[in-house]
């Protein structure tokens, strides 16, 4: 009797488990629906899709851009300022306006119309996935003239475009496709894959922390080499920005203050290192200094977004 009862319970548990798995599998099934002319999508050759921050779904086709509001598609074409070409890329500006990329140029949404924006060198967008925004409020655009960075002034106004220099050894200026991974930008350049990343003080701090933790001679030497290279890069960028960005009437005074602080920083750093080593030990002092460099880098990047967005020295 007891064995029969256990058998019934086991069978019941098996049936419940089967129904649970079946319900879970059914819940994971996708529901597909066809959209066409009766929904307002009068061009079915969809090349690119994009969802803006407000939730609208945008479809780029061979002849026009369509916006879906959850019920119907609204077309934007020549009457709204767009050319009769294939839409290759869609994206948006830092303030949420949609960008449409064509071989003939870049177009910006303004209410229910689009207007053409002048890209550097008369460039055009000639690839898919060519418009991407990063976390710093910049839009990176792969164009026929190179990688372009679009930023918006803090006080508002139109977009400001900056053509980035191509890496050495790249054959031709043509770029295509952009992928952003944290502070690293991947993009196609000619027949190659290029990567753009930021380095300097943050690398200096990370290398210092690695040196403090390291117990291997070769790793410590490598960390010191990276630390020294990052420090040289940081000094070069700081000195160059002071000379190029500072207004002419103030350049001498700003350079003098910068030189004073740089000169005093060595003595202050030695005092801080000795004091930290007294209370934290040699390893703790090295780690404390590296973490401090990383913290100051993050705070300054947050307080001064213009420094964070600096991409070239000109």
Topology:
Elements: H1 2-27, E1 46-51, E2 57-61, E3 64-68, E4 73-76, E5 89-92, E6 98-102, E7 105-110, E8 113-117, E9 131-133, E10 139-143, E11 146-151, E12 160-163, E13 175-181, E14 184-189, E15 192-197, H2 201-213, H3 217-245, H4 251-303, H5 305-308
Antiparallel strand pairs: 1-2, 2-3, 3-4, 5-6, 6-7, 7-8, 9-10, 10-11, 11-12, 13-14, 14-15
Summarize the structure.
The chain is an alpha+beta fold and 314 residues long. Helix content is 40%, strand content 25%.
Which descriptors would you attach to this protein?
314 residues, single chain, 2 domains, disordered N terminus, Methylamine Dehydrogenase, Chain H, alpha+beta, four-stranded antiparallel beta sheet, 15 strands
Structure description:
The protein folds into two domains: 37-197, Methylamine Dehydrogenase, Chain H; 201-308, no CATH class. The chain has five helices and 15 strands. Residues 1-19 and 21-27 have low confidence and may be disordered. It has 314 residues and is of the alpha+beta class. It has a four-stranded antiparallel sheet, with no helix packed on it. The protein is 40% helix and 25% strand. The longest helix is centred in the C-terminal third of the chain and has 53 residues, at 251-303.
Beta-strand residue fraction: 15-25%
What is the count of distinct domains? 2
Oligomer: single chain
Terminal CA distance: 90 Å
What CATH first level of the largest domain would be assigned?
A: Mainly Beta
Number of beta-strand segments: 15
* Total helical elements: 5
